[in-house]
Amino acid sequence: MKIDNKMEVSFLLSSKYSIAEKKIMFIGSITKIIYDRNIFKNNDDLKRYIKIFQDYFEKTNYKFTGYKEYLFKSRTLLASRISRMVFEDKSSVGTRFLIEQHVNFLNENNIEIIKKNSKTTNKKNSTSLLGDFINRDK
After folding, report:
1. I want to staple 21 with a disulfide (CB 3.0 to 4.6 A). Which of 17, 43, 47, 92 is the partner?
2. What is the DSSP string of 1-45?
3. Strands, E, within the chain: which ranges?
4. Which value, to the nearest 10 degrees, does the dihedral of the CA atoms of residues 69, 28, 104, 4 take?
5. What would the pLDDT profile of 26-72 be if each residue is shown by its tens digit?
């Protein structure tokens, strides 16, 4: 697979957006990657990607003891658990660290995130997160 996710990666690494905006995009990216069967054919293949989050939360959350095996049987459960933990993490430094680890994983494994073409009629210039996302292909 080749890397074709420049827009998403540049958004996550940009200093233009707040950490809250990046966190929302990051959660979407995590979910998209977990759900994509072209990237990870089997649910067990997800373990090397999920290790990024498991290692981080084991170090920062004393109650966290790792992801249970039953979570790897359902991509939906796994994605929702990781998304909730990332969303509830209050550390902006931690969020930046996870984003960097996520981007490194994508680059090291040459993972391609395919964007679906969408038609939008709103060509308004905006500097908001939603406006930038909608107008990214124009």
Report:
1. 17
2. -----HHHHHHHH-SSS-HHHHHHHHHHHHHHHHH-TTT-SSGGG
3. none
4. 120
5. 999 999 999 998 888 998 889 999 999 999 998 887 788 888 888 88
In the structure encoding, which two tokens stand for residue 70, read together? 């039953």
Written as one string, the DSSP assignment of 93-104 is: HHHHHHHHHHHH
Both tokens of 54, joined, read 């498991």
Hey, what are 110's tokens?
């040459």
Determine contact, residues 106/3, Cβ cutoff 8 Å.
yes
Tokens of 135: 């107008």
Residue in 4, 6, 56, 8 with CA at minimum distance from that of residue 31: 8
92-108 helix and 6-13 helix, angle to the nearest 10 degrees: 150
Residue 20 token pair? 């809250």
Nearest to 91 by CA among 61, 71, 65: 61
